[in-house]
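Reply to dn_fold:

You asked what the input looked like. This is it:
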Amino acid sequence: MFISTSEDFSIGYKQKILHQNLPLCIEKNKLICLLGANGSGKSTLLRTLAGLQKPLKGNVFIEQNKLQKLSNTQIAQLISIVFTKTPTPTLKVVELMQISLFAQTNWWGNLNAMHHHRIANVLKNLQIQHLAEQTLYELSDGQLQKVMIARALVQNTPIIILDEPTAHLDLLNRIQIFNLLKKTTIEEQKTILIATHDWEIAQHIADEIWFLDTKNGLKIVKNKNESLHLDYILPYVTHSLKNDEQLLLSKILKNNN
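and this is what came back:
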């Protein structure tokens, strides 16, 4: 057990409970995809697990340590995040990478050769090394999304939490990002939790798939070989599909089950 929550773990805003009694357990070195319709509470769950907001009830644990009792520096050494909020737009890409390493540097924030090598390596793997000296406001939405993923990878924490990291990317780049994240869990022993609508990629690459729904709560498929039944998938993806696309999806899923 690496990340876990108490039996009474409940999430929401103020006194509005979105989901309650969610005992979760995330093992080390797993890639988990969180699927759910817009408004189902995916971002709220990720923000709560990342320590950005408090649970309405219960606790989050990393190993046996309560997340709420850790300092900001300790959390930054354990968890890197990719959310939709854009940092200071006048920063250069390379400066954003350097800032992400602050929790791992000395008192003066000096970077060593290993830090510079990691930055260069991550930018190269994401094929954005040519953007290193550009400022964030000069980037397209897709480029900025890849830069934010790079920042999380450079931070080099054991846990990475991403909220729809491929939202502005085309299919080829979405596949590239998912493959890189999967490779990262294996080669660098990372634990990665991703909220996504890319169910078709998730079912092939995730170690676990979490389905979140306001009516039915959380359904966890822990084994890729377990059938992803039509009843589980359709409520989470059809909100964005046309009628003919829904029909095609139904045929594909029935053939897979």
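The radius of gyration is 19 Å.
Hope that clears it up.
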